[in-house]
């Protein structure tokens, strides 16, 4: 279980997350909130890619910074800056070697990404940056998928495949999104960030 205890995060002394406590113990979550409310920051904290100003985050009772916790997580977010001098092929090969998983050939085909594998990251369009971000999140089939606006920028075919794939994904999923595919989906438990971000502890 992913557990956040009294998490706070500030940037240049401006609070974004304030004393937030929450336990993600269901299979599907959609985090909802206006732009600037801290949705992306929350995912980055939960993935251990940002360090909380205060509080504690654990995954199955292990610190989110631990190697074992990180291997159970996959995150896709536009906030993650990828090395622009590498190609997607190189990024995926390194990722798969780190996680001891197979190269995600089928995912690449479904997303129509094969032609971009040897293109430097610096030359990728926004839509293709989204695709390589998703491929890196999905490749090792993590127990927890953290997806920040996962369908934004995708072409129709890729979007349709991703939504269908997520419907049958065996692990747990936490998304941030304004799309009805998630916000109106009965399988996703809606979490309103403004209600959480008041220094109170709310269990699902």
UniProtKB/TrEMBL annotation:
Recorded superkingdom: Bacteria
What are the UniProt keywords, alphabetically?
ATP-binding, Nucleotide-binding, Transport
CDD domains, per database record? ABC_DR_subfamily_A
* Pfam entry (one): ABC_tran
InterPro entries per UniProt: AAA+_ATPase, ABC_transporter-like_ATP-bd, ABC_transporter-like_CS, ABC_Transporter_VariousFunc, P-loop_NTPase
| One example GO MF annotation | ATP hydrolysis activity
Q: List the protein's name.
A: ATP-binding cassette domain-containing protein
Q: Which PROSITE patterns match?
A: ABC_TRANSPORTER_1, ABC_TRANSPORTER_2
All residue ranges annotated as the ABC transporter domain in the record: 2-204
